[in-house]
Structure formats: structure tokens, C-alpha cells
Inverse folding.
């Protein structure tokens, strides 16, 4: 298992693209993994390819480190989930206080499959963009969950994986700032112009913070973070 090989859970959104840059800045070899789980915002599967392709000409040093991409068919997850991310229903809050965009078990399944690929590829480091500072309240994004997953994966696979969560304790404004620190204005522009976080997968509306419907929780978080990030820059 290579100490300098990482596998990044990469959806093609703001958070996972920032995490990809974070990994490329730290490790010698970085691969990516994405999941088709029947999500209604399936446009992200196409955009993630565009983001990967844009890295080479813009960041030659990172391009030399960027390895294979793995796309896993998890459409069965969408078939057994009754959520606003896998069904054509309005986004709303549930009685338990969680939004109906929560896909039960999604990140747990993702981490299991990522670890399986990492085991086969000899990658020690798993990098994911989960966060419990500025998020929708999903329990599978929390630090305790990721720590428990690391323990379970290492016990169950007799391995020594390290799960990295670079965004866990920062908000969206700080995530934009981290991107700027990692790749300068070029990375900020790439994330703004080429990634999508919108739960509705709306690429028809362009805002100063990027593509999206502008009203779903993911768009609102991204827009608020962008505004705060821009406000932190001197005029």
C-alpha cells in the first residue's frame, strides 16, 4: 500500500474539486472515483470529466500526478432510496429535521466502494469532501462517522487506510479561500465555471458563483460562501 497514493471521492462539485486539488498538492499519485447512483442531478457525471480534463492544461504540475478515474455503477442505491436526490419530488424538510435530499447510507456505501478500489490499487489515502460546519445536516458527513468508517474499513480489510476530510471544519467561504490558496485564481475560476453543486442539476442559469438553480440548499450554501469569500477581498 503506497504511502503517497490517494483516491479522491470526486463528484465534480465545488467541494470534491477542492479536495482533488488538496490531494494533488500533497501526494505523488492521485486517482479519482465517482458514483452513478441514479441521482437526478446526473449532469455532474459529465461535468466531472470536464473538470478532470481542464486540470492538465491549467496545472501542469498536478497533471503529472493525476491518475486513473473510476466510475462505479451504484444505481441500485437510487432504486431503494426514496429521496429528493433520487426521485422527482420537491425538496423539503422531513419530520426528523433532515432535508429529504438525504440519501440514507450514501456516504457509507461510497466509502466502502472507495476503500475496495483503493485496496486493489494500493492507495493508502482516501480523500472526501464531507463537512459538518456548513452543510445540510447529513449524519453521514460528520466527523464521528468518518472516524468510525476508517476504523471499520481498516478492521474489515486488515489495512491501514487514512480518511482525509480537508473541509470538515471549514465553511463554504473558507472552501473558496482554500481553493485560492491551492491553485490561485485559475482554480477558483475552474471551480466557479466548470463545477456544479446544484441538487437540480441546473446548468441553464449562470450566477457569479457558477451554475445552478439558485434556490436549492446546495446553491444557497455555495452562493453565500461565494459572497463571503468575495467580501473578504479588499476592494
Amino acid at each position: 500500500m503506497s504511502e503517497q497514493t490517494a483516491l479522491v471521492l470526486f463528484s465534480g462539485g465545488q467541494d470534491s474539486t477542492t479536495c482533488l486539488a488538496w490531494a494533488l498538492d500533497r501526494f505523488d499519485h492521485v486517482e479519482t472515483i465517482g458514483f452513478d447512483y441514479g441521482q437526478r442531478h446526473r449532469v455532474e457525471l459529465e461535468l466531472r470529466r470536464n473538470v478532470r480534463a481542464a486540470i492538465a492544461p491549467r496545472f501542469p504540475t498536478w497533471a503529472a500526478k493525476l491518475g486513473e478515474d473510476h466510475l462505479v455503477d451504484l444505481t441500485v442505491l437510487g432504486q431503494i432510496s426514496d429521496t429528493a436526490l433520487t426521485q422527482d419530488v420537491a425538496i423539503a424538510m422531513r419530520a426528523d429535521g433532515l432535508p429529504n435530499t438525504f440519501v440514507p447510507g450514501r456516504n457509507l456505501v461510497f466509502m466502502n466502494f472507495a476503500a475496495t478500489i483503493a485496496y486493489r490499487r494500493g492507495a493508502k489515502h482516501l480523500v472526501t469532501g464531507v463537512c459538518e460546519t456548513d452543510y445540510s445536516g447529513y449524519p453521514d458527513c460528520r466527523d464521528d462517522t468518518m472516524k468510525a468508517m476508517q476504523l471499520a474499513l481498516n478492521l474489515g480489510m486488515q489495512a491501514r487506510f487514512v480518511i482525509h476530510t480537508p473541509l470538515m471544519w471549514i465553511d463554504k467561504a473558507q472552501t473558496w479561500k482554500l481553493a485560492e490558496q491551492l491553485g490561485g485564481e485559475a482554480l477558483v475560476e475552474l471551480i466557479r465555471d466548470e463545477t456544479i453543486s446544484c441538487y437540480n442539476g441546473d446548468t441553464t442559469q449562470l450566477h457569479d458563483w457558477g451554475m445552478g438553480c439558485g434556490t436549492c440548499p446546495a446553491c444557497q450554501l455555495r452562493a453565500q460562501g461565494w459572497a463571503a469569500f468575495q467580501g473578504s477581498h479588499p476592494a
